[in-house]
Amino acid sequence: MAERRISRRQLVTLLRASNPMPSTANARIAIVGAGLGGLACARVLQRHGRSVTVYEREASADARPQGGSLDIHSGTGQAALRAAGLIDEFRALARPESQGWRILDPATAAVLPVPGPPSHDDDSPEIDRGQLRALLLDSLAADTVRWDRAVSAVTPQEDEDGTWRLLFEDGSTEAADLVIGADGAWSRVRPSVSQAAPAYNGVTFVEAGFPDCDARHPSLAALVGNGTMLASTGDKALLAQRNGQGHIRVYVAFRAPRDWHVGAGVSLDDAEAVRRYLVDLLKGWDRSLLDFVRRNEGGFIARPVFVLPAPHTWEHVPGTTLLGDAAHLMPPVGLGANLAMLDGTDLARALVAESTVEDAVRAYESVMLPRSAQAALECAKVLDDILPPQGA
Q: Which domains, ranges and CATH numbers included, belong to the chain?
């Protein structure tokens, strides 16, 4: 008789069906990834007396820069911070004056009397991602986050009761009743529920930075104003965003093949070659806008935009789920961090409200999946409005 093979999802379902479902009150909960969504989930769980462990591949909280400024929306990110009991601390750090947009004419750098991209709400103050992450980290109990613990995969424990085993890159393992994939675009947890993988969507952002811009480059700072500046035409755009402590981040965005630099004969490690390419790309733009490229001294970082399919859904798998970019990677137009924190909060609250892990995860996914599907479509449209696809 031929050997019958069953899928991982079928195996986990069979194991869970033959054993009592773990109670949320004493479940071993493992969050993979110490980003904003995973930390928000851990914080809300701990506020309700639940035990949780966060595993993070980075060696420490300050192992790398945490990125630029985020606008935190009242209905999503701020709602998560209220549930976390951190809204007052957030307000003390946030910059409400930085939520505005200035739209400039690329040819003249004149301010245009038009609004910026669609706003999600009128109360969305900015905060540096690093500050927000530090706020969440500091709110957790000591040793909640296990640093330098890189998860390579998660697998069902076939010889036990349907729980999961986390496999770490150093060869060690840990068991959990619930594994939450909060580990971003290239999630190691995602394959436990979905075979979807991020794909390049045809847009690349090239980032530059201007520390202490008000003092060192006052003319550029004046063009940006207090918030975000945008100039765009056709399939290319220039964005400049004010961060904390006078830092301004600049992004040249354009539609191109993933290997555009190879075709152009440009090494991404050669700042002068990248600078020449970008100046030529923006040929005909006002000189003051080109200075955002010409006067950058810190090099350039290429950031191709990857997205998951929209909608990205999966059949429920007992004992594991996803949140944030691991669940719904979408274009970076202001929703991702907000949704990640809301995901984490919703999942934590479900784990508090429901009696079993199974019921909690199903309740969470029934809300998160349709919400993220709609948000992904909205984000794709915003990016297409800023950088229309060829022929649009």
A: 8-97+127-197+308-386 (3.50.50.60), 200-305 (3.30.9.30)
